[in-house]
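User: Can you predict the 3D structure for this chain?
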Amino acid sequence: MMNNYQSEDLLHKYKTGTCTDEERAIVESWHIHELNNSDFMPDEAEMDRAGKAIWAGLPIHDDPAAKHKTIPLWLKYTAAASVALILSVGGLYFFKREKEPVSEAESQAIRYKNDVNPGGNKAMLTLADGTKISLDDVANGKIAQQSGIVINKTADGQLVYDVTNNPASNKAPQYNTISTPRGGQYQVNLPDGTRVWLNAASKLKFPSSFIQLKDRKVELSGEAYFEVTKDKKRPFIVSASSQEVEVLGTHFNVNAYPGAAVDKTTLLEGRVKLTQNTKDYILKPGQQAIVGSAVRIAEVDTEDVIAWKNGNFIFTDNDIKTIMEVLERWYDIEVVYEGTQNAIGFNAEISRDKSLIQVLKALEKTGNVKFKIEGRRVIVM
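Assistant: Here is the predicted structure, written as structure tokens:
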């Protein structure tokens, strides 16, 4: 017995005139059986209009010699059968599919025509002189040297700045920038030993040496997790969007993507001072500053906040649009929405190593959402 996909293919071949005589006979026999067992019956006017349209479109009219040939009886019968088939296919075929619902496995096979791999260690390093180095293409080991600093790439996806000689005090600081694309992440060990994990679609600008500077100031766009090396003489400052975060030595996460409604700074260890519009806020471990037109301090689960750095997605009562923003950056996809999206919260913990289909199927198990993948475009239904 044919399944729904074989039936669709056969009907398409019939309507486009590409099926064999045997396939045409199967379609017409099926149609007669269905017509006799249904309430559908087109009226005479519909049959006449459709018959003329089909007859005019038959390929025999393209042959100049055909005007002088006798039209085979089977061709006329085929045209007549086509009339009834075309008029009824919209009702009968889909009526038949209603009686035999598509299974979830069949539905997913239709909607998930291709998969998208997860992101990985990808980044671009831009040196002070404008030189750009693709870190996912360059070989491991020493990749550059500037002002007494050697820059190395390690096998496990880290960029390490090693101080070999004290930079000359009369030289202005040189700034480097490391940026990750959508679908990328990277770890950089700054010259002072501070470790920074960059999430997808993020950028960090920093001096190649802090030795001659009164503070250790870096600029962030996107999301990063910091483990700051203690230095009482030189505070570490992260400038991100409309806020500045100042620390001496601590672990914290900053989420400040361009265009986001709010920025978020979350403290895991130590103590930080956050400044916005000249006003200071002190954070304690386990607290998050939510920065918008005003600043709100909230207690949060820090493991959820830094799940990305540990290789996981953790969604806790998140709406679907918030979740899809995260997936857009990690899988480098475009997301569009069909219909009205409800405000239902989703809860899930999924490895970031999973393919896109695996993540979407996990979300579908809630029964509140369906997805369709078309290339790198995901439709949320």
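DSSP finds eight helices and 24 strands in the chain. The chain has four domains: 4-101, 118-213, 218-310, 312-380.
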